[in-house]
């Protein structure tokens, strides 16, 4: 066995995640290192590669093949999978993590760009940007005396969830309003008190007592469909609902019913079914802003994920704890 660590990325991934000197820095950190484009590699070739190089560390991008269940004998030295993008569910099994394999992904490095997209959708909703963009481009229209638009300044804003994205969003919203409340089941009230954040008593009160709702909660089996039609209807008429978290947090039929009625402005970056079918009922609703799951990271900020990976590789090499390890509990929340 050559005992060679692996950097598994194609050229486009290297350019996105590790531009400039970053690729060289990764190679130096995990030297000796072999850079491989495994995108078209067959499973048997991948297994043979692991057995031949016996890596201690694998750094991978989207093109990384799934680690086979027999990786423990193909690459018995393997300690750390530093996956640079997001979900690792199709790259490594939870069983491998339970057996001690250290795994990280882009973690919180993308939080600010997701929060930025949430703010964009929220502003677009209250300003009805999607509606006017369509009417001016495709219908030759102009405003009339009955146009109603709203501002985000001094609006009551509710945030469902209290992870890294929520905290970044609160920071961005501070420019517009101080009337922000948060709800996340399982987060002790003392945490909100310590952070100086106002929390709602319940999800019901969060939705019914705020004009704009941002959905940024983590998806768990218990939260599938937690935002149902009744909750959406409890948002004051003329309000807005924005989801940049996971589509399955929202009950799809109820969302479509409310969307078609036009009583709310809605901004969606995630959906129950992705890609969103061309014939889906949400398409064509002029009160619904749609974006195709592109909240973050943006193309120019993929480098943030690369920098996060480099920092974790440095920590690993120094024998320090990495930032945001994928535990079995975290793994189960990934989609």
Automatic annotation (TrEMBL):
Domain of life: Bacteria
Transmembrane helix keyword on record: no
Database matches in InterPro entries: D-isomer_2-hydroxyacid_DH, D-isomer_DH_NAD-bd, NAD(P)-bd_dom_sf
Keyword vocabulary terms for this entry: NAD, Oxidoreductase
Originating organism: Pelagicoccus mobilis
GO MF entry, a single one: NAD binding
GO CC annotations, alphabetized: cytosol
Pfam families hit by this protein: 2-Hacid_dh_C (PF02826)
Protein name listed in UniProt: D-isomer specific 2-hydroxyacid dehydrogenase NAD-binding domain-containing protein
Domain D-isomer specific 2-hydroxyacid dehydrogenase NAD-binding as annotated: residue spans: 123-295
